Amino acid sequence: MPGNKYNCNPGTPRTRLERLLRERELRKFNKSLNDGETELSTHDSFSPDPETSTWFNDEESLEAISAARVSFDECERQYFRASKQRLLVVANRLPVSAVRRGEDSWQLEMSVGGLVSALLGVKEFETRWIGWAGVNVPDESGQKALTKALAEKRCIPVFLDEEIVHQYYNGYCNNILWPLFHYLGLPQEDRLATTRNLQSQFDAYKKANQTFADVVSEHYEEGDVVWCHDYHLMFLPKCLKERNSKMKVGWFLHTPFPSSEIHRTLPSRSELLRSVLAADLVGFHTYDYARHFVSACTRILGLEGTPEGVEDQGKLTRVAAFPIGIDSDRFIRALELPQVQDHMKELKERFAGRKVMLGVDRLDMIKGIPQKILAFEKFLEENPDWRDKVVLLQIAVPTRTDVPEYQKLTSQVHEIVGRINGRFGTLTAVPIHHLDRSLDFHALCALYAVTDVALVTSLRDGMNLVSYEFVACQASKKGVLILSEFAGAAQSLGAGAILVNPWNVTEVASSIGYALNMPADEREKRHHHNFVHVTTHTSQEWAATFVSELNDTIVEAQLRTRQVPPLLPIEVAVDRYLESNNRLLILGFNATLTEPVDTLGRKGSQIKELEPKLRPDLQEPLKKLCDDPKTTIVVLSGSNRTVLDNNFGDYNLWLAAENGMFLRVTMGEWMTTVPEILNMEWVDSVKHVFEYFTERTPRSHFELRETSLIWNYKYADVEFGRLQARDLLQHLWTGPISNASLDVVQGSRSVEVRSVGVTKGAAIGRILGEIVHNEGKKEPIDYVLCIGHFLTKDEDIYTFFEPELPSEVPAPVRPHVPTPIRTCVSQLPVCKSGSRAAHHKKQRSLSTIERNTSYPVADGVLQSMMADRMSLQEGSSVLDLQGDNYFSCSVARKRSNSRYLLGSSDDVVKLLRELADHS
């Protein structure tokens, strides 16, 4: 394709899957080079494993490896990013904790946490961390010193004042979003106070995200990938895209994403969803979370959910699952260290003769620590023989110790532990060892290695990497993992773990007994399955896969953008308008000249749309344009005649109702442009089907028009409406219209049945001929502006006026509506454009308008109309249209056959005002 810089060579992968597979092969090869595991021959050749590389031939393999080892050409750079692409990781907290030791002195220590643990092993990118350092630094000298100290660790600080931190982090993030995303609901304090707090906290949340965006923009370089993390920064993608629309932005959520019914309780639900959708790629730990997000966008925002993500008027935000991993090699290597071996020896001696069960959790409501301990108590009750043979080590890392709910949880856990130890303990041993503190890395690895059963009973957890760390350290002992089905890790490790419902204490107690008595061969199989997953799905692979998908999403978006019409150059359209002598303006009605309405149909919007109204701010410019003797305006709509009469009765223009099947100038009577008596015998049978589905689908309705029937489910539940529409179509095709000459037109939320050939493009020729005949203008039309939010079926109107189509694009076939009576039209001279397409359109526009004396329609009989014929004098020309004087514009439809795009009806208002002011 000329001008397509991505078509570089025949070996370039064409599909998204091919690109991702090739990049995966290159990543594996680069890793093997870095690890010193690959030997190259003296001829510098490489033969990949045929079982893993069957998707390309040997020659392509050599090309790929050569490119990997020498340099990427421009095309390869687009698809396969260099291994050291700059990656800006933006998270609420930096991976270090800062402690001030003096005015210009700071002590930095590595922090702990799932994201930090996951990204520690990422070595394929030149990574920069951007985030809050966790301390308030009000003075400028302290900020400079901290910035300098953090720069050595490739970290960039974001400075937030105490009030913002309190409202943003402690307030909106931890008090609103975190509980909601973990199904704990919104705070239940006094409603008025809660509403006020929510608003002030949300304002602080947006302000903090804007501050993060300022820092990112300051350090951003072209080509960087910006990776935003977690619920703290849901507003950040929108802020970044507003600053630089070409910035590559990904967003990843490390918590669960709740079902749409939970998320819709959030007052700022829509704003947060739209902000996240500004990202190019949105990632979640599991498919369930991704599915909930897409469902929320569909149900709350009314957008289109697709298998790839969420689509909003041609702009696709890819949504996918990327299960996070750990740096498994770090844990495996740690087991060989002398200090870890010493720890292991000490622990084995301390708990000799007893099975070791382990729990490692933050002391948090969602971790299910009380449920875990109660289940262990029940196991001891039911299995007295095990009381002296098993011990539970529970590491509970304190968190948010200043919050009353967490203080209460701590007291509750201590009380249960004390009761169980008092009940089942002896003078020399207790069944539960509970520690309210964290352990250092080496001690934790040793503890993992000596454990027989790991117990993870999260009530709701985004992923839970403790289960991964346990598996990585179990190469020798091959212990058993008991895992909550509500943890994200259950999606990855479920086949090798024992899945439990932590709320079912009896089930967990039974699973403990099963795990302790499990045969060695079953333990071996279960461990092998999980160990392979943990060691292959590492944090490096997770990050590389996400960035690879993000880069590929950008490529896909660029390809899609080329198919989107450019925005209408309003100044050019106005200038051409002023230079022309006989102008034709064809305007759609719904979503073009009407007010936009709320998708969810609240506040009476549904009633408003049932009776569409002309925008008040269009009345004055439309009046001016109608009074211009050089301008002819046609309102072409699928609406019925009554709707158009009610809105445009006072204007001097042409009205074309029901897709151009009925026509009148506002000073005259309605006539039909239908060329023959249509067969409408199908109406009753289709009407019965529509009535049936309207009854079955709440908030749907159908409209009976004179030449068509429409079933609309815009305000129904989106997913249920789609299912009903699919069912309705099956009923239609197998029943009422199976042998009828009808068109079924599917809109975004509607199904329309109409006779074949009833389209705007098919009617425009006859409409044009009647207008020329009626107005008796001598000069041909030399300017056409066609604007509308038309269905795909009706977009043949855009191509009708095209003076000349590109040679490589076949001309669209327009539905032919036979006209029973035609006048003989002499050979017309070729217009100035010299185009055969324009000449053909000129001939089509000279069709006669048939006015039937009696016209049967769905509701009854159209009143008699006088028969008339139109004939034009030989040599006359209806159209003399240069390509530069034709402007076809789709409104809010980025996938269109039109030449140009207008974003919304607001842009239509702006355009018509400009034309009116210059008339």
Explain the overall architecture.
The protein has 919 residues and is an alpha/beta fold. The strands form six sheets. Strands 5-4-1-6-7-8-11-10-9 form a nine-stranded mixed sheet.
Quick overview:
Helices cover 41% and strands 17% of the residues.
Shape: elongated
Structural category is alpha/beta
Integer average pLDDT: 81
**Order of strands side by side in the largest beta sheet?**
5-4-1-6-7-8-11-10-9
Number of helices: 31
Low-confidence stretches: 1-10, 37-83, 598-605, 804-876
What is the fold's blueprint, element by element?
Layout (H helix, E strand, L loop, with lengths): L15 H19 L23 H12 L4 H6 L6 E8 L2 E7 L2 E6 L3 H6 L6 E7 L7 H12 L3 E4 L3 H20 L9 H29 L5 E5 L6 H8 L4 E5 L7 H4 L5 H9 L3 E4 L2 H15 L2 E3 L2 E4 L2 E7 L6 H7 L3 H13 L4 E8 L6 H14 L7 E8 L6 H21 L7 E4 L5 H10 L2 E4 L9 H7 L7 E5 L5 H4 L4 E3 L4 H12 L3 H17 L2 H24 L7 H10 L3 E5 L17 H6 L8 H9 L3 E6 L4 H8 L5 E4 L4 E4 L5 E2 L10 H14 L4 E4 L3 E5 L5 H17 L7 E5 L3 E6 L4 H16 L7 E6 L7 H5 L35 H9 L10 E2 L4 E2 L23 E6 L8 E3 L2 H13 L2
Parallel strand pairs: 1-4, 1-6, 4-5, 6-7, 7-8, 8-11, 12-13, 12-15, 13-14, 15-16, 16-17, 18-19, 18-27, 19-20, 27-30, 30-31
Antiparallel strand pairs: 2-3, 9-10, 10-11, 20-21, 21-22, 23-24, 24-26, 25-26, 28-29
Helix pairs in contact: 1-2, 1-21, 6-7, 7-8, 8-10, 10-11, 13-16, 14-15, 14-19, 17-20, 24-31, 26-27
